[in-house]
Request: fold
Amino acid sequence: MALHFELVTPAKLVRSEEVHMVVVPGSEGDFGVLEGHAPFMSTIKDGNVQVYKTAGAEPENIAVRGGFAEVGDAGLTVLAEHVEG
Amino acid sequence: MANLKELKGRINSVKSTQKITKAKQMVAAAKLRKAQAAAEAARPYAERLASVMGSLATKVSGDSAPKLLRGTGSDKRHLLVVVNTDKGLCGGLNANIVKEAKKQARELTAAGKDVSFYLVGKKGRAPIKRDYPDAGKQGFDTSAVRHIGFDEATQIAEELVELYEAGQFDVAHLVYPVFKSALAQDPVTQQLIPVPSPNTAEASEAVVEYEPDEEAILEELLPRYVKTQLFGALLEREASEQGASMTAMDNATRNAGELIEKLTIVYNRTRQAAITTELIEIIAGAEAL
Reply:
């Protein structure tokens, strides 16, 4: 049960890892992505991407600004214009 | 024949020039490594964005497509966005970019189009202005920025999109150098606006859900795509500049070395001749006694 999660900014590939769940701040509401999610695409608003490494673990927050998220066969890809830290 | 003192002076001056070119070469080599790493790191974003663009653009077509994708409906006024470096000492790089830009401009003019310029970087301004006096009006100055980043690309892209929305031009092409190796940097021309429809017709069989909807996402995506293109061009420019600079300085260092060798031979010969003359004088003097 692992979701392939990638966080990419114009400057570099920030994250590329297997995680349990990611909660993305979509422009029309936050949404969580687990493995096997249906193909989906959304723009994102400024906020925190929450990464759950394992079920029930404390989420890791990554602040992102501007961009969009894509869920496909390969997993979740978040293309963000800026990532804090 | 030059006297010994003059020769010595020249040798020393060439030696100090050689030191400078050598230093510049090493600096360029170090910067090149960094610039290449930056260009490499930017690739995943550009690739993903292009693939997303490709899948979206095939879904949204016709009149509902945003203006950035559809075009203005005419192709009379062309804008050439020319990316040059800010600093010299990089061989023929800028001359080649300018040549490519002028070639494009001539072709467009021959086809009856209007051509205007948007110049990024200092070194392209003077040579392009010589043929196209109006060229200096629009441009972006990157000379004050130490590390070129996405912010600069954003500013350029926003200005271009604004000009486009204001109807200042119909088609924009981007002219920039592509870094192949330290020896080869080829200037290329690429259509920037309207965004060319990617021909990756990978019609995914899966039904993708969009939030908000296709048009809205595309609307947001296109300016971002233009930004990414510009960012890529700026990174390529950076790598090309350092690569070209490294090669040019390597040549300069080698030439200086050759010149020093030649001058040293002349210097030694002259010295030998002077000694011989002196000896002859002494011997002649001794014989006369």
